[in-house]
Amino acid sequence: MNDVELVAVTKRYGGAVAVDAIDLAIPTASYTCLLGPSGCGKTSTLRMIAGHESVSDGDILLAGRNVTLLPPASRGTAMMFQSYALFPHLSARDNVAFGLRMRGTPKAERLAKADQFLDLVQLGALADRLPAQLSGGQQQRVALARALITGPRVLLLDEPLSALDPFLRAKMREELKRLQRELGISFIHVTHSQEEAMALADLAVVMDHGRIVQAAPPREVFERPTSAFVARFIGGHNVLPRGERAVAVRTDRCRLDAGTEGPRLEGRVRALEYLGSTVRVVVATPDGTEAEALLPDSAFASSTVTLGDAATLAWNAADEHALAA
Amino acid sequence: MPGRFGRGLLTTLFGAFVLFLYGPTLTIMVLSFQGPDGGLTFPMNGVSLHWFGRLFEQQAVGDFGASVTRSLILAALVTAATVVISLSAGMAFRRRFTGSALLFYLTISSLILPSILVGLGIGLSFNQAELEPSWWGSALGAQLTWTLPFGLLIMLAVFNRFDHAWEEAARDLGATSWQSFAHVVLPIVAPSVIGIALFGFTLSFDEFARTLLTAGTDNTLPLEILGMTTTVTTPVLYALGSMSTLLSFLVIGLALLGLLRYRARA
């Protein structure tokens, strides 16, 4: 059985359609990322699943039960807010215990359980601090513990990593995945970062203009993007015209090589970026078409190409992936 | 950064400002300790608590005790009404509703109208309706026309900065709307609510223009003092001024203490 099922779910604000009749099945105990540019409808979708946004049309099923009209707390979901929304007047412990307090759990029991969940996110030592006395990363752990204590079947995360610095972000990413695996529940995570989605997701759902344009494991999305939009958004691809249609070629499968037969693009080097283990070379043709190659640093070191040089970008025909129009 | 001369000038200006602000009050406080044979002006003729003692004796003109009591009760009524109504209105104004803009401007316009006219209007209305004006009726209403717009403005500013996600989080964690109000909204806005209470209390306690024509036969403290300035010629008037200033500070001090203890508990 699926943990979450969306059936023709639609959200309209006045006349504007934010989410356009999307269907989606999220398997049990999986990590799903809703991915797309801002305004693509990913956050509206998450908030409809949470019950914080009404559904204009369609149905939302959680573990086979129709929850479309239920209040948030009766759905079996819990949400972690982008701003964390910690209650500023309550200590970390009281924040975490809040859900149990609303259910009428006796004080000793709920505080003991709150400590247990603070330990789960490695914050046991700071239980008495107020949110203002915690760092951003620590606040996020409190928010995570507070959402998990109610025992949700599905945890909804609204851009959980966007407020953290890059180092913390990578660390927290590992932690989210670990928690999801250990708890054996589903996480649905909204993000605009394709890197985050690739690192975390079992199922990556790419959205654009209120529709799902591709929903598949990240590897499939990266290796076989269905459209030019997906190929561009997920990154690492050149999207090139091929007659009526377009093809995608991974930038790491391109090379600077004028000698061999096969598809190629001739032009001049417009940009060179040294990225450590790789080097990014952008080649522009006289008619304005641009494509890039991601070269291993060793391959770049053995070439003599510099900015403005004539260069030929080449790849194997087998690496071309045809895209839908 | 201003130069040496500029800084000196600013310091002098600020000193003059503070002197202007507190000088008169200080003068009255000093003069209230006038000796038994002293008069309304300097020089001090000895130092004593004589005039404070006289405050609690029967006066030839004016009745301090009763007017202070009336003013305190009235201020308490105004404070309670201001807090409850401003908080509710602030919650209501977070969403647009039919006529919300009109209601807002109607409320605020009461601040722009000359106070004395508001008082006159309310007094006349009571007379027309053949109701007896009283400090606990018509004057209470008149003072609310002064404190409510302020209270509402403060609440609007507070809720403007209020993160809606707090209430969503409460709802997500199973709180009913009432639980969300009691456990999340109210504790977070509590300091501002206490502020409104203090504001309401002090505005009411020394309100004059709106109360003058609405208080009926029994005087509040400011009205009593006005009456006495023309008839009383002893420093007992100053003693009264010192006492009421002290009372105001006491109320503010108690409220701040309460706030600090609340913070320490939370």
Automatic annotation (TrEMBL), chain A:
Residues 4-234 form the ABC transporter domain. Pfam families: ABC_tran, TOBE_2. SUPFAM superfamilies: MOP-like (SSF50331), P-loop containing nucleoside triphosphate hydrolases (SSF52540). GO terms for molecular function: ATP binding. The keyword Metal-binding does not apply. Gene3D superfamilies: P-loop containing nucleotide triphosphate hydrolases (3.40.50.300). Keywords: ATP-binding, Nucleotide-binding, Transport. This is ABC transporter ATP-binding protein. It comes from Plastoroseomonas hellenica.
Automatic annotation (TrEMBL), chain B:
Keywords: Cell membrane, Membrane, Transmembrane, Transmembrane helix, Transport. The keyword Transmembrane helix applies. PROSITE patterns: ABC_TM1 (PS50928). The lineage of its organism: Bacteria, Pseudomonadati, Pseudomonadota, Alphaproteobacteria, Acetobacterales. The chain crosses the membrane at residues 12-33, 72-93, 102-123, 135-159, 180-203, 236-260. Residues 68-258 form the ABC transmembrane type-1 domain. It is found in: Cell membrane. It is a multi-pass membrane protein. This is ABC transporter permease. It comes from the Bacteria. Gene3D superfamilies: MetI-like (1.10.3720.10). The keyword Disulfide bond does not apply.
